């Protein structure tokens, strides 16, 4: 709850449950304003629930549901927008429709200021469904009697999270040569701008972050934040263009967001540097506590050699499963079924024996696939190891009565698999980023 001061206003925050909306709430609280939050689901207010004075639950597309929501409100800040797929809704329903219903209600209630969070737009983006809907609303706002400001921000740091996620996965994918530039901005900085405009301001304010970075630079900084060596794959620009032409054939409710994202990723997008928070700061905060499972963490001694040996053995054993001359899988399964005949393993053993061809092919495929995977040292060898462990476990469960050697064999193999895996290090590795 806020502690009102002399300049304290009652502000309706529409979209208070979103990334930016929650920043707006925090920023208003720090300035001592009273907050009425307009949300569809109060649960989604999360950590800012305790900061708001009133919660109104309504879908802003419904004029009826909004009746009275702006009463005794000094200003409205709306962050309502379609940023992820929202069922069958289109930008025209949300970015235009929901905000327009809110504007009409604000006019009816005599609200003095209306701040609308739009999006940075450059020539060539007007036709995008999201931009077109936002521009249509900007037009309605310009025609209204209410004093207003449209804030047009560049991409938020929340969207840069995708680079961190890719860096955590070990490889980042960027379109073209990764040379397109952008200056993303922290939601807290956009919120501070919006709150500073509560009294008055220019009709349109463009805002971006302090650092203009290429997509490659953003990816590299994400790798630094998670303490991993950068591995960047450049996806040819034509792939983005081809994807764009495909998604545009889908209904607007499906294509609006990917169309916007693919377009933004295929061009420079630079706004006036208003934000103060650096992307490095955001990345460091998000990456803090992250300890990679490989790369900077040393493997157990000889792990690479063991992995190669294991990979070779699995590969050869896997191939041999496909050739009876090398390994008589049906014969072995038949012997196992006979040996297990009177035990509780009789059922599974009989089944395996009856489907010997299928079993040989499946086991062979897993062995070839995981062995090859280990030999190549490709990403995901932990999954390869897990598949092998699972397979060894199945062998020892099904066959141990028929083959007393299987259990010790499996134990040796399982130990070798475990030996090849990287283990979590108790302390974070050396930080190789700049502060
Ligand atoms: N993300 C970016 O990089 C970026 C960059 C520039 C501009 N923008 C613009 O900034 C605004 C906020 O973005 P964001 O990233 O904070 O998006 P967000 O996290 O998805 O928040 C959008 C908010 O709009 C609300 N909303 C959607 N439809 C609604 C409806 N019919 N009635 C009431 N509320 C509704 C959502 O409520 P629920 O929680 O119930 O879904 C959510 O609170 C958007 O207009 C976006 O276009 C975003």
Which SSEs are present, and which pair or pack?
Layout: E1 10-14, H1 19-30, E2 34-39, E3 54-57, E4 75-78, H2 91-109, E5 113-117, H3 129-142, E6 147-153, H4 157-169, E7 172-175, E8 181-182, H5 187-196, E9 204-207, E10 213-214, H6 215-225, E11 232-235, H7 237-247, H8 252-264, H9 279-287, H10 303-320, H11 329-339, H12 346-354, H13 356-376, H14 381-399, H15 406-420
Parallel strand pairs: 1-2, 1-4, 2-3, 4-5, 5-6, 6-9, 7-11
Antiparallel strand pairs: 8-10
Bound molecules: NADP nicotinamide-adenine-dinucleotide phosphate (NAP).
Give keywords.
single chain; 435 residues; alpha/beta; Rossmann fold; 2 domains; two-stranded parallel ribbon; 11 strands; disordered C terminus; binds NADP nicotinamide-adenine-dinucleotide phosphate
């Amino acid at each position: 709850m806020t502690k009102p001061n002399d300049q304290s206003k009652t502000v309706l925050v529409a979209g208070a449950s979103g990334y930016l909306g929650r920043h707006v709430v925090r920023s208003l609280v720090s300035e001592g304003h009273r907050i009425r939050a307009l949300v569809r689901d109060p649960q989604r207010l999360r950590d800012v629930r305790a900061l708001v004075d009133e919660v109104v639950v309504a879908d802003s597309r419904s004029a009826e549901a909004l009746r009275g929501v702006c009463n005794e409100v000094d200003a409205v800040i709306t962050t309502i927008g379609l940023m992820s797929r929202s069922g069958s809704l289109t930008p025209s329903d949300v970015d235009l429709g929901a905000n327009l219903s809110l504007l009409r209600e604000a006019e009816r209630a005599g609200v003095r200021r209306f701040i609308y969070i739009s999006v940075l737009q450059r020539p060539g983006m007007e036709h995008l469904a999201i931009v077109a809907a936002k521009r249509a609303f900007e037009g309605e706002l310009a025609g209204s009697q209410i004093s207003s400001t449209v804030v047009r921000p560049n991409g938020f740091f929340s969207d840069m999270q995708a680079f961190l996620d890719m860096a955590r996965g070990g490889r980042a994918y960027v379109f073209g040569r990764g040379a397109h530039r952008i200056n993303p901005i922290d939601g807290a900085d956009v919120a501070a701008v919006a709150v500073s405009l509560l009294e008055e301001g220019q009709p349109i304010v463009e805002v971006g972050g302090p650092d203009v970075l290429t997509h490659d630079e953003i990816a590299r900084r994400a790798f630094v934040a998670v303490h991993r060596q950068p591995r960047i794959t450049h996806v040819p620009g034509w792939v983005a263009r081809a994807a764009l032409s495909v998604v545009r054939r889908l209904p607007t409710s499906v294509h609006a967001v990917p169309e916007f994202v693919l377009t933004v990723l295929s061009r420079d997008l630079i706004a006036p540097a208003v934000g103060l928070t650096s992307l490095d700061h955001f990345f460091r905060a998000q990456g803090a506590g992250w300890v990679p499972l490989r790369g900077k963490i040393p493997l157990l001694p000889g792990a690479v050699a063991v992995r190669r040996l294991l990979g070779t053995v699995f590969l050869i054993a896997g191939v041999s499963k496909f050739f009876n001359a090398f390994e008589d899988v049906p014969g072995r399964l038949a012997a196992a079924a006979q040996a297990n005949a009177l035990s509780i393993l009789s059922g599974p053993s009989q089944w395996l024996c009856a489907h010997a061809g299928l079993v040989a092919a499946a086991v062979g495929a897993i062995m070839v696939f995981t062995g090859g995977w280990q030999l190549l040292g490709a990403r995901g060898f932990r999954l390869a190891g897990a598949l092998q462990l699972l397979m060894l476990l199945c062998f020892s469960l099904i066959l141990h009565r028929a083959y007393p050697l299987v259990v010790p064999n499996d134990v040796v193999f399982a130990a070798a698999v475990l030996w090849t895996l990287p283990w979590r290090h108790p302390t974070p590795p050396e930080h190789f980023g700049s502060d």
